[in-house]
């Protein structure tokens, strides 16, 4: 397989650093030091400091008895100077063969100024795991600069919403008014999907042919149904009582008002245009202020056909992204993408990478 980061080959600093640093995957007995590093050098009281269960669920690699973090330990002082966290999609289904990773926390200590220390962690990662695709969401400016320097494609993720025209705007501002439709398209409806019912969907079903090769039927169980903190809602889009697509959603709010966020999707996105009535009824029933869909890589116009509005269509519209704590502001997340598979597509949903990760304890 082609080398995903040839840009790092032949860098003198990578060879030179080996004398001073032991670079390796975080071992199980190093996890307390990892948590301490996150607390002191990334964010005090980061959720991984508060919830070992969440850290383990997202990063513990039980098969290899290690954590999906690369770390640089300074040989002289014994201290950790830099870390790189990543989530391979096979974290949620070890049988997924092609490797896509989502990097997350990437940080060198600010009081340590060693050229290329963070880059060396990536070098270690790509020489120890056969990575086919790297996709990062919600990058800092410096990370985005480095990813561009390493020839990633980059851009902004898009946000669409379906307003509940009957709700008062609390979380959002200046949504477009969309009239209620009278009924659903004939034969089409949405139905809540339980884990048991999901398990009964044939793994050869056409919905699984529309998903990325880095996900699988079991991936959705472990990523969503088995989440240690969040409760995800699965809804099947049905035509004449048979499943055509699946929506993965999560309720978010500020304590007084709620919305529903589509965080993943299985199946043909064109099916969304048949269920506008059902989504409007769902919002009315639960008093959701709106439903939003954060996504990149879909055919232009697909969501508009389903009644969704592109958030940037009107300059005053605010559809927030952060709820823990709630921040009433638009957020345009950056993405970076690189693959050695020429056929790999940029198609990200809200819950890819660690963007749909709890930030506060419930
Ligand atoms: C991200 C981080 C770990 C990278 O550390 P590092 O590898 O030691 O960074 P360096 O400055 O030595 O740069 C590594 C490479 O990227 C390049 N680079 C660094 N900053 C860059 C930028 N803003 N734009 C373009 N290229 C950049 C360097 O030139 C170097 O490439 P080269 O070897 O071809 O010259 C470190 O900057 C950091 O801790 N930043 C703060 C936390 C953060 O923003 N993390 C990202 C989270 S998404």
Structure description:
The chain is α+β, with helices and mostly antiparallel strands and 362 residues long. Helix content is 23%, strand content 30%. The protein folds into two domains: 6-155, Gcn5-related N-acetyltransferase (GNAT) (Aminopeptidase, 3-Layer(aba) Sandwich), CATH 3.40.630.30; 158-331, Aminopeptidase, CATH 3.40.630.30. The protein is built from ten helices and 18 strands. α5 (117-128) links the parallel β5 (100-108) and β6 (133-137). The chain is globular, with a radius of gyration of 22 Å. The mean pLDDT is 97. The structure holds coenzyme A. Coenzyme A binds at residues 11, 106-108, 115-119, 139-140, 142-143, 145-146, 149.
Low-confidence stretches: none
How can the largest sheet be summarized? 8 strands, mixed
User: What does the overall shape look like?
Assistant: globular
As a whole number of angstroms, the C-alpha radius of gyration is 22 Å
Strand content: 25-35%
Instruction: Enter the CATH topology name of the largest domain.
Output: Aminopeptidase
Helical fraction equals 10-25%
Element-by-element helix/strand order: HEHHHEEEEHEHEEEHHEEEHEHEEEEE
CATH class of the largest domain: Alpha Beta
Total number of beta strands: 18
| Small molecules in complex | coenzyme A
Number of helices: 10
Coarse structural class: alpha+beta
Mean pLDDT: 97
Distance N terminus to C terminus? 43 Å
Number of domains: 2
CATH architecture type of the largest domain: 3-Layer(aba) Sandwich
CATH superfamily of the largest domain: Gcn5-related N-acetyltransferase (GNAT)
């Amino acid at each position: 397989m082609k080398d995903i980061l040839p840009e790092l080959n032949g860098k003198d600093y990578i060879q030179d650093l080996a004398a001073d640093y032991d670079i390796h995957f975080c071992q199980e007995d190093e996890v307390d030091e990892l948590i301490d590093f996150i607390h002191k050098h990334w964010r005090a009281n980061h959720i991984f400091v508060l919830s070992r269960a969440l850290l383990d669920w997202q990063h513990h690699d039980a098969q290899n008895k290690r954590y999906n973090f690369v770390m640089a330990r300074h040989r002289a002082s014994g201290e950790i100077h830099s870390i790189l966290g990543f989530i391979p999609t096979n974290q949620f289904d070890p049988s997924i063969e092609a490797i896509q990773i989502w990097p997350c926390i990437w940080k060198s200590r600010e009081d340590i100024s060693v050229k290329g220390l963070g880059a060396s962690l990536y070098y270690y990662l790509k020489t120890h795991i056969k990575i086919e695709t790297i996709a990062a969401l919600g990058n800092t400016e410096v990370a985005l600069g480095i990813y561009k320097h390493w020839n990633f494609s980059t851009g902004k993720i898009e946000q669409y919403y379906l307003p509940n025209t009957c709700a008062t705007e609390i979380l959002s501002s200046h949504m477009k008014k969309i009239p209620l439709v009278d009924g659903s398209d004939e034969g089409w409806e949405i139905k809540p999907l339980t884990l048991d019912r999901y398990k009964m969907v044939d793994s050869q079903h056409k919905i699984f042919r529309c998903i990325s090769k880095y996900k699988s039927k079991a991936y959705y169980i472990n990523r969503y149904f088995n989440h240690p903190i969040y409760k995800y809602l699965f809804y099947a889009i049905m035509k004449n009582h048979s499943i055509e697509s699946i929506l993965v959603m999560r309720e978010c709010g500020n304590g007084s008002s709620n919305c529903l966020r589509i965080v993943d999707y299985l199946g043909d996105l064109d099916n969304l245009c048949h269920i506008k009535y059902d989504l409007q009824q769902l919002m009315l029933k639960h008093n959701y202020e709106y439903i939003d869909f954060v996504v990149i890589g879909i055919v232009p116009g697909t969501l508009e056909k389903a009644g969704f509005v592109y958030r940037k269509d009107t300059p005053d519209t605010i559809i927030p992204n952060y709820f823990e704590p709630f921040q009433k502001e638009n957020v345009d997340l950056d993405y970076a993408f690189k693959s050695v598979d020429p056929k790999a597509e940029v198609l990200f949903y809200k819950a890819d990478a660690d963007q749909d990760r709890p930030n506060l304890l419930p």
